[in-house]
Amino acid sequence: MTANSPSVFLLMINGQIEGANFPEYDDLYCKYCFVYGHDWAPTSGLEEGISQITSKGRDSPHRLVWNFPLEITFKSTNPLGWPQIVVSVYGPDTFGNDVVRGYGATHIPITPGQHTRTIPMFVPESTSRLQKFTSWLLGRRPEFTDPKVVAQGEGREVTRVSSQGFVTLSFNIVTKDTKRLGYDTTATETTHTHPVAAGFGPGNQTLSM
Amino acid sequence: PRPQAKPVPGSSHSESSTMRQRMKDKLKAARSEMGLPTAEEAYNFFTFDFDPEPDEETRKGQKRRTRPEGENEEGEDGGDDDEEKEEEDKEEEEELFLIDQSADDFLVFKRAEYMGYQRRLQSENELLFTPSFLTVPASSKVPENMKPRYLEEEGLYVGERPPMSLTNQNILENRILKQEQGRKWFGDDGRIMALPDPIKESSTRPPLFHIEDDLDPALQTVYRKALVSKHASQYISVGGETNGDYQLDVDVSGLIFSHHPLFSQEHVLGSRLVQLYDQHLSRQHRNLTEHLTTKLNGLRNTIGNMLEVHGGQRLTPVMQQRISEYKQEVRNTRRLRDLEQEKDRTLLKGIVKIWKEIKALRDFQRFTNTPYKLYLRREEVERASDVREYEAEIQAEVDELLDEMEEDYQRKVTEYRRQQEEWKVWRRKQRAKNKKKKKTQSQLDDNEDDEDNDDDDRTDGEAEPGPPKPKPPEEPDMEGVEKQVSEKASRIRRKPGEPILVPELTASGPITPNEQCPRGEFARREDVAKRSIFIKVLYNDKEVSRTDNRSLNSDFRVHFGQIFNLKIVNWPESIKLQVFEVLGLSTTLLADVFVPVPESSILTGSAPSEELVFSSNLRVMFDHEAVGSDVPFSFEVDGSNRQTLLTSGKLSCSVSWAVGEDDVPLAPPTTQPNGLKQLDAIASIGASGLNDMKKLGEWATESRLDPNDPNNADIMQLLKVASSGEVTAPDYFRLEQLQEEFNFVSEEDLEQSRRFRLLRLRNQEVAEFRNYKFVPAMEREVTDKVFEVRSLREIVDTKGHLDAHRALVAKHLHKIRESIINRFLIAKHHFIMSDLVQEEQVPTIGILGLNLFKLAEPKRPLKPQRKERKKVTAQNLSDGDIRLLLNIIRAYDIPVRKPSVKYDTRSSSHVLNTYISGYERVRPFVEVSFQRSVLQTTTADGPNPCWNEDLQLPFSAPNGDYSTANLQSMKDEIFINIFDEVQYELGGDRGKEVHTRLEKHWLGSVKIPFSTIYFQSRIDGTFKVDTPPVLLGYSKERSLASDGGYDAVRSLTEGAFITLFITIEPQLVPGETIREKVSSAWISFESQESEGLLLASEVFERDAAVHFPDRPCLTTVININGKTVFITRYLRPLNPPQELLDAFPNSPQEATDLIARYVSLIPSLPDSVSFAGVCDLWSTCDQFLTLLAGDEEEHAVLLCNYFLSMGKKAWLIIGTAIPEGPTTYVLTYEQNRYLIWNPSSGQYYGQYDTFCPLQTVGCLVSADNVWLNTQAYTSPLRIRFDVTKAKLWKPFFSRAFPNPGLSSVQCITLHIILHLPFPKISLTCRIEKILKEKIMEWRPRNPTRWNRYCTSTLRHFLPKLELSRGRDVADEHRLELQSLLGDYRISGFPLHLPFSEVRPIVEAVYSTGVHNVEASNVEFALAVHVHAYPNNVLSVWVYLASLIRMR
């Protein structure tokens, strides 16, 4: 990889999982992992992580704060399969069983700079009321076989989900050599950083099987 | 020619009045018959009820009926004249009656009149007219002797008529024609005149100007980036900090009507007077006259001074110039002053005149309506000075005028002189010419007296026209000037000594009280009092507020004095004040007054009040004194000099921006015209939207567009432009044009680029590239090597085969595989809920109870049960995470070394050695190789060694892809080789140093495919070791200490065995779901079986799965075309190749063995590997033999069919075996015992054989039924194979559901190719050559010598092996070799393989490790033999030996 003609570009992600807004739940922790295409590879940093358990504060009764840092660098040859971060939130239910409270995913912002993302979270629904009851009773809620499912569109039509809350992430993106390889990811207007709800509307996914 | 209608005398008043009305209308119609009917008439025409009236006859009839009887006899066809006369008579008669007769005379008492039906019908026929709906002939619609003229044909534009049904049109035409003057409704073409359909069908769009490049460069469109106008939204949003804090103050102070409908005549005059007076006041205020007079005097003084200063001296030209300028100025100023003075004078006169008129009016009507009073104040002047001034003024003016005239005269004179000179010169020339011609004396005379008199007669007419002879200017008329000046002065100025009149208008005069007024005036005043006025304020056409109602006063001035503060958010577009008049409950809009939006600098407080004039064209009439509006009236008694006045007035108001608390104007920043808003989308696209001119033209000609139709003007213009210019319209639609823009790269680039090719291959999930990582970013970094893998595969498949037939087969197989993989890929992308979401099953009561019971369980049970390990989804894994665990426990019956006779004689040490360690000795160890990583156990002693060692082999998936599909398709195998470690001592005799050399001798191997481990998750059992038929130097001696009982048990099994446990750590989830899903999908969509059978089989399989979950049960299978076939259809007796049967005619046992061997020689190709875990495909026997590849099912079916044809009782066993997993075996019953055949190896086992690889028996299949094992046990050792016992075997076809007689899918006879179509010698040579090359390749550091003598010996030996099928030849062979090659120590063995490809042979040779001999003097021997069986089944023998010279 000479300086003149790089064969890969680098994407460095710094940031943190700032916190979440789950109005009904408390004592939650979250896991994250990255999903990326074939032409991507992490060069440094942690690909997966699990946060501490956080409780709601007295002064901010709706806010769960993790401030869980993310730091990872990817190298890639192809923007296809741009990394996505998958966040899944877990916490105890009324019986103390650890159950999933939400899955969510968003693409890593493609433009260098600071970004904040608020991801809506959702969980798969039970297939029947009876199932729902027993799963509640036994503390074995339906889960995705793999949290990475939420980063892919394939096969989602068979699931039904219900929305839960929001997780806020902040990213600081640095790229290297993207432009050299012909990918211009710098936005023309760099001014606004709007918190776009990535993949909003998990309710839309609830197509019947 | 119809009579001038007169009122027809009617019998009653009402009737006559209506008649009169009708007549009036008719009169009107008649009057306007020449022109086109007016709108009103047209309306009347179409809406009027024509029934009784329009016809002359009906009128007559009516008349007749009203008349007294007796006149009935009058002829109907009497001329018009007669009738008129008669009418007149009648009139007279009636008048007489009126005078003479009383009312009684009119009354007649008589019976009620009854008219008979027929009569009434008749009379009604006369009265009523029913228009026919037949088409009126064209001739009756056009004037006589004229043909209908079709304007359209003449090329004139005729608009499209509005659609109308023909019947209605006919009725209308008939009706019109009945009417007098009906023809005027018809046009020249004989049709009713009609306007073209006014509805425009298409929306208008702006004219299309430019077509490509024809445009003037100056007019070229310049494309700029779209600007978002600040005012695109109507809301004011600037900055955002002072958002929305804008205020507009609208001050409505009042209004004055300059005319109002309720004005009386006096009011009219009064307002006029007021106007004039206002004018006068404003003039006086400006006082232009005074100003101009002063200026004039100043100028005059200046001129006088200048002349005085230079008194008499010669003036410099500059001074002269200035003086003349001053004079010019004086002249202008004087003219202006005169004008102003005249205006003043006329204004004053007008005021006085109107005042006089008012006074006269007041006198006349004897009351006063208006409070106006005009005083004319006289300002006395001193007569003498005034006269003097007047005179002086006149004198000065006269002087000036004289001066000017003098000057003018002088100038004219000079001009005259000059012209005269010119003329003379010309004249002279003329003369000279003439002189030459005539030379007469008289001309000379003429010439002389030419000086003074110009009145010489021009005799020569031939002279060319020269400059006209100038005329001398006239002397200025001095007296006339003075007269003129004084006349003018008297006209425009007051006379000297006259007092100055200053008019003063006051509104203080008394108004006559209402009660003293006459009735008309009183009514008017009442009316005025009832009215009131209010004003609505509209901002951007929305009403924001309104003033209070103010009643109208007699002076018609309304004072509001209200200020409205408008907080505005939207940009001001218009501010409108609406003047409303209220009368009672009704409200009338008088006028709209538009107030300009103020500049942002106009602020409240400093804004002047503006007077905005408004007017209304409302027509108002009153029946009292008021003059009304838009109604002519006159002041004169005789009604002459009519005037019409419209309601009008002045509204005084002011609009300004408010000032905030801290003196900040609450005005938005400068308003800009909002340009962008009006642009519509189509206009912005413009003509570029229409590209296809040709098509448009074609369409225009096809649809015969009328070029004269104004509707089509746009298109025509466009077409004209298009056809005239050399515009080449692109023949594609615009969207496609854009499509090209959207293309990523051109198609060619896409094809050529290696990188794109790679990306596409990966996207298509082609096996080699499915999980290719890091496709390089640059084209140049993609090497062609990448594709070699793929091309290699293809080439190997077609060309690399040694056998043409097999190549074809392989090709075919490849095709099938491709298609099935495609189907599989489609199915793989179909998800079901359980693929994505893990959900607990709803627990049944039993499970709940069990769980409850579990709570009471001891925490640490005495007999712990093996816990299931947690399964890991393969997706999360990466290299190094997975290991293969092997536990090699023990082995049985390892071949032992044979004592060498020669060794005994020659070397005492050897004798000693063997003696010490026992007669037979072997030191076996196990070497496991997987994915080229090799591990070995420690060496154990003896033929029944026990290692009990754990080995861990690293595992890595191809391409690092741990997806289920990829793991399923892995073809890697685990080789478990047993070696004998042999220790040689070298040089022991010579010195004290003893060198030992270790050699390993291959004894046998076990191959376990990875897929088996993957699917079964663990393999636990004892396996038969593949040992070569001949192992030089070893013998398969039974252990000497064998007791008879043991021997009897395993009588049928020969060879070595090894006990193993293999698993994968962590446990991987086998992707069985996909398999089931796909197969279930296939079952559901394609089958030739009947519905009932499928249903039954489904039920059967489900039952089996519920009750015996670990027993494989198969009733339907999928054939090679993906269709579901019932399993029994595969079984049918098929004759084995006759050659095989003939081989051992006397020994059926031998023949059976041979057939089993033949079947096992057909190469095995597990479906689950080749089809990537899709499912088992069952091919029929002929397909199998054609393909020469298949897995256990095909082998089993073929073997079973052969057995059946040989008259044996044979079944298929569906069960599980080690190491294959779920598999199919063959069961035969002969000689009162059951034999279990492994079809892929050709081996058979007794039912009670301990080492039988078959572990569970699920069900048995015969040609006509399927039985499910319902016994307690599944192991063949412990079950009974008697299918007739209903308790033990549950049949599929029972009495309740009998076999419908399913036909077999197999062919009746197998087509058998007896002999090979290709020379097997060449194949032998090629295999040998390849192997030799390979061996040399594997020994890169050592020279590889080939012992030709040995090779030829081995070559001769191999056919014998084939004949004996590997038995009972070892000893002689060894002896033979021994005798031939006495000096060599030989280790080697023959390998026996079915033949499909070269690669497996090479692999097998490699795994033996023969090439690894390191000794320097080693020699090798290699022999290959290919034996051909019928139908192209080949058996390949490879004999490989290493020779080491002893001395």
TrEMBL record, chain A:
<dbReference type="InterPro" id="IPR010796">
    <property type="entry name" value="C2_B9-type_dom"/>
</dbReference>
<keyword id="KW-0970">Cilium biogenesis/degradation</keyword>
<dbReference type="GO" id="GO:0036038">
    <property type="term" value="C:MKS complex"/>
</dbReference>
<dbReference type="Pfam" id="PF07162">
    <property type="entry name" value="B9-C2"/>
</dbReference>
<comment type="subunit">
    <text>Part of the tectonic-like complex (also named B9 complex).</text>
</comment>
<keyword id="KW-0963">Cytoplasm</keyword>
<protein>
    <recommendedName>
        <fullName>B9 domain-containing protein 1</fullName>
    </recommendedName>
</protein>
<comment type="similarity">
    <text>Belongs to the B9D family.</text>
</comment>
<comment type="function">
    <text>Component of the tectonic-like complex, a complex localized at the transition zone of primary cilia and acting as a barrier that prevents diffusion of transmembrane proteins between the cilia and plasma membranes. Required for ciliogenesis and sonic hedgehog/SHH signaling.</text>
</comment>
<keyword id="KW-0966">Cell projection</keyword>
<keyword id="KW-0206">Cytoskeleton</keyword>
<dbReference type="GO" id="GO:0060271">
    <property type="term" value="P:cilium assembly"/>
</dbReference>
From TrEMBL, chain B:
<dbReference type="Pfam" id="PF15625">
    <property type="entry name" value="CC2D2AN-C2"/>
</dbReference>
<feature type="region of interest" description="Disordered">
    <location>
        <begin position="429"/>
        <end position="522"/>
    </location>
</feature>
<dbReference type="Pfam" id="PF17661">
    <property type="entry name" value="DUF5523"/>
</dbReference>
<feature type="coiled-coil region">
    <location>
        <begin position="387"/>
        <end position="422"/>
    </location>
</feature>
<dbReference type="InterPro" id="IPR000008">
    <property type="entry name" value="C2_dom"/>
</dbReference>
<dbReference type="InterPro" id="IPR028928">
    <property type="entry name" value="CC2D2AN-C2"/>
</dbReference>
<dbReference type="GO" id="GO:0035869">
    <property type="term" value="C:ciliary transition zone"/>
</dbReference>
<feature type="compositionally biased region" description="Basic and acidic residues">
    <location>
        <begin position="22"/>
        <end position="31"/>
    </location>
</feature>
<feature type="domain" description="C2">
    <location>
        <begin position="866"/>
        <end position="1023"/>
    </location>
</feature>
<feature type="region of interest" description="Disordered">
    <location>
        <begin position="1"/>
        <end position="97"/>
    </location>
</feature>
<dbReference type="GO" id="GO:1905515">
    <property type="term" value="P:non-motile cilium assembly"/>
</dbReference>
<dbReference type="InterPro" id="IPR056288">
    <property type="entry name" value="CEP76_C"/>
</dbReference>
<feature type="compositionally biased region" description="Polar residues">
    <location>
        <begin position="11"/>
        <end position="20"/>
    </location>
</feature>
<dbReference type="InterPro" id="IPR052434">
    <property type="entry name" value="Tectonic-like_complex_comp"/>
</dbReference>
<keyword id="KW-0175">Coiled coil</keyword>
<dbReference type="GO" id="GO:1904491">
    <property type="term" value="P:protein localization to ciliary transition zone"/>
</dbReference>
<dbReference type="Pfam" id="PF24656">
    <property type="entry name" value="CEPT76_peptidase"/>
</dbReference>
<dbReference type="Pfam" id="PF00168">
    <property type="entry name" value="C2"/>
</dbReference>
<feature type="compositionally biased region" description="Acidic residues">
    <location>
        <begin position="445"/>
        <end position="463"/>
    </location>
</feature>
<feature type="compositionally biased region" description="Acidic residues">
    <location>
        <begin position="71"/>
        <end position="97"/>
    </location>
</feature>
<feature type="compositionally biased region" description="Basic and acidic residues">
    <location>
        <begin position="480"/>
        <end position="490"/>
    </location>
</feature>
<dbReference type="Pfam" id="PF24652">
    <property type="entry name" value="CEP76_C"/>
</dbReference>
